[in-house]
Specification:
Two copies of one chain form a homodimer. Chain A has about 400 residues and is α/β, with parallel strands linked by helices. The first copy, chain A, folds into three domains: about 15-85, Arc Repressor Mutant, subunit A (Orthogonal Bundle); about 85-205 and about 380-395, ATPase, nucleotide binding domain (Nucleotidyltransferase, domain 5), CATH 3.30.420.40; about 215-375, Nucleotidyltransferase, domain 5 (2-Layer Sandwich), CATH 3.30.420.40. Chain A has twelve helices and 16 strands. A five-stranded mixed β-sheet of chain A has the order 6-5-4-7-11. Chain A has a five-stranded mixed β-sheet with strand order 14-13-12-15-16, covered by helices on one side. A three-stranded antiparallel β-sheet of chain A has the order 1-3-2. Chain A starts with 12 loop residues before the first helix and ends with a helix. At the A-B interface, α10 of A face α10 of B. Chain A binds a DNA duplex (30 and 30 nucleotides) through α1 and α3. Chains A, B: Belongs to the ROK (NagC/XylR) family.
DNA sequence: AATTTTTATTTTGATCGGTGAAATAATTGT
DNA sequence: ACAATTATTTCACCGATCAAAATAAAAATT
């Protein structure tokens, strides 16, 4: 049942403590044992023992502290930090035209990246896994890394994916439906491999390294061709019962409204997705087909009324959708990750105004909103973030069994 | 910090185990120790000891088993069940015209109920608490109960309430905003008292006693004057960061749409709330003001086209809103609790069709939908459900400290 | 320079919850 | 009566955590 694929939840009490300590160190960056004990509200003794194990496993290291302004009396604290060299993890984002790879160390720092072009944007499962293998090998080769140093591999893919089992219900990148990737990964790839919805990965990245660090309840909305969302509740990715929730792009914002790619009406994507903007600004004239988001923005800036209206409406509707999220989830924070600048100023302003206007009024302040640029690499980095988490658990477990032996 | 008010989260390992065992017994109804061990995946020894404590505390009891079809060899299992007589809890729902009280035993079975009329539908905090006291005393008197037997009291109130702290941001029943009820409760009421949003209470009731028994992720949508929602995620009430999420009634389903009571546009309530139906079926003629939902339904049944259209649209829009929830939360189950019959057949059908049509298509089946009648008493019972849970925790803790002494 | 004070970490010994194994209990089948 | 079977309890132990004591490493003081 608990295969390689989903190692979480299988931690005994001791390993759970070690993991907590590790995560505390990671989120603090640099921290002493005493402060860890304080932060986790546990005894120094416990922290000492957990840190011992983590040091033995090579996952953290002691830092010879700066002789600087530590103007304190008493025995100086020994600072601990994540040992970046512990292992490397590859994050891969399967996009339309390429597989984007980012290799990061255990700290999450980039070691190198690589873009491996794809012949076809939609492949059969076996073909996809082989492309992944090719991308991984090429990325390692480019940066002079032995593929064996990669301790884990994490794959972000658009579509409905159950990140806990590796089962894919549907993806725009895969010809077949209902594929169990776990065995394919085991067969073709050299290290433990994890699969998740790409928006979930960005959420994970924000949670581990970005604006969501240390938060328990926050949302990440991704804005590119489509609109996606990752949900962190109680400090964990919420995946829904069947592993395919968070379909913000197909939230209906207008009853009987505009037609969406998915065949339904009034979906958010049908107003704010790239293709919707292109469609709605087209006037039936000449070069419309070639119109890009850039063109539309440009036109709007030059006073084109249609372009302005479409962008304005998109911003407002996006604000409504975010307001719906605030009304439903009441999160601490929302990260709005957009690929290209269609929602740049002044549209971000319009969006925020609409958000405020459509939120149920409580005296408590609204959740913070962070707008973040999201290039292709960020997706891959998000994948890597998940990989780090998963492999960390594997390593801690491994260590545990070694102790026992 | 951890006052009387929110006893959860303050359980040590042992009490947590006891609580798990107790909840297992509750959700099973009648179960043997061996089966509990199997269900909780723990050792029989642990279960024995936990049950010992629970028996001592009088929270559960052994059932002399039926001599019936237990055609098994070996030592017969001793069945355990919740001891209803352990204590009583009062659930109160603050409605517009009355406070509805239900007194239940520890099993959740009704001991008696009472409706205590209110002079005013909106009171100052002190007045409200005194009305609560009056309602409690009257209910006890009616059923010949000593008020001292009530081990806990739980209050459901419409509005934005932080159920974990007892802090009320706003409620339609209270003249003031931002009231901390906890000290008022301590001052005027004879037993530990808890406060929560009324929709949360119905969710709790479904989780403990209704369609959500044993489920981890499900939603309860309440349909009456307004539209509310309770969210259970990972087996717990999700309250959002500021304790005021789940505002389904103000989810925008139509950009720039119909005007809502709240002053915003396109809210779900503005299409499916009682007052919206009345408004939208009014033709500017004579007795419109007196029109009731019953009248509208009746008119529709008799072929009135406007009434039909309005009800049809309401059903469809409700379906869209539920589809949004499915797309976002991917729950196991949704309970639709409606107070009066505006969404009876054939409108329930229309609603379900709309739900199906607006859900993102995955091969996995849709969550189950249960439609449930929700009379005023159910709200009170929901409140009682929360009360049972809270008091259970208090009792288990109490028992723990007794042991220590 | 030696000593005191202060703070951080480790060691030690005790506690406690959970567990497996063995013992006991309560049946049915022979 | 005795064997077989299943449920529960008892018991000895393990391992995680913790408080307290010991130790370590510095700064301040003498």
């Amino acid at each position: 049942m608990t295969s390689d694929f989903a190692p979480a939840g299988t931690l005994d009490a001791r390993d759970a403590t070690r993991l907590r300590v590790l995560q505390c160190i990671r989120s603090a960056g640099t921290i002493s044992r005493t402060d860890i004990a304080r932060a986790l509200d546990s005894s120094p003794a416990t922290v000492t023992s957990a840190c011992g194990a983590l040091l033995d496993a090579g996952l953290i290291r002691e830092e010879r502290r700066m002789p600087s302004e530590n103007v304190q009396r008493g025995r100086p604290r020994v600072m601990l930090q994540i040992n970046g060299e512990a292992f490397a993890v590859a994050g891969l984002k399967v996009a339309r035209e390429a597989i984007v790879v980012m290799i990061v160390d255990f700290r999450g720092d980039e070691i190198g990246s690589f873009v491996s072009p794809l012949e076809a944007s939609c492949m059969d499962p076996d073909g996809l896994v082989q492309e992944v293998r090719r991308a991984l090998d090429a990325a390692c080769a480019r940066h002079g890394l032995d593929t064996a140093r990669i301790a884990g591999l994490s794959l972000g893919i658009p579509g409905f994916v159950n990140g806990e089992t590796g089962f894919m219900h549907w993806s725009s990148s895969v010809t077949e439906r209902n594929v169990d990737f776990a065995p394919l990964f085991r067969k073709h790839l050299p290290c433990p491999t994890f699969l998740d919805n790409d928006a979930n990965l960005v959420a994970k990245a924000e949670h581990l390294f970005g604006a969501g660090r240390g938060l328990s309840n926050f949302l990440v909305v991704t804005l590119e061709h489509g609109v996606g969302m990752g949900i962190i509740l109680n400090g964990e990715l919420y995946r829904g019962e069947r592993g395919c929730g968070a379909e913000l792009g197909h939230m209906k914002v207008q009853f009987g409204g505009a037609l969406c790619q998915c065949g339904q009406r009034g979906c958010l994507e049908a107003y704010v997705g790239d293709y919707a903007l292109v469609r709605d600004t087209s006037t039936g004239q000449q070069s419309d087909a070639a119109k890009s988001i850039q063109d539309i923005l440009h036109a709007a800036r030059n006073g084109d009324r249609l372009a302005r209206e479409v962008l304005d409406r998109a911003s407002q509707i996006l604000g409504v959708a975010l307001a719906n999220l605030v009304n439903l989830f009441d999160p601490e924070h929302i990260v709005l990750a957009r690929s290209r600048p269609p929602f740049d100023h002044p549209y971000t302003e319009a969006m925020l105004t609409s958000l405020r206007r459509n939120t149920v009024q409580v005296d408590a302040p609204l959740p913070e909103i962070t707008v973040r640029n999201l290039d292709e690499m960020m997706w891959a980095k998000g994948a890597a973030a998940l990989g780090i988490e998963m492999v960390t658990i594997l390593k801690i477990r491994e260590r545990g069994t070694q102790d026992a032996a």
